[in-house]
Amino acid sequence: MARTTTFKLGKSSNPTMTKEDINKLIEKKAFELYEKRGRKPGHSTDDWLEAERIVKGKLASR
Prior knowledge:
Strand content: 5-15%
Oligomer: single chain
Number of strands: 2
Largest sheet: 2 strands, antiparallel
Structural class: mainly alpha
């Protein structure tokens, strides 16, 4: 069974997300950052860390 992490996401949202769900959100945001930078390779770690900061910040603020 997947581990779950609980985040407040509002009344209409599911209050629990798995680490897998969060990683999917981070992956999507990292790809958006990659595209925004013009699809230039060599910054995947930077994109991932920035995406992680953005996604976890949004989840924590809800």
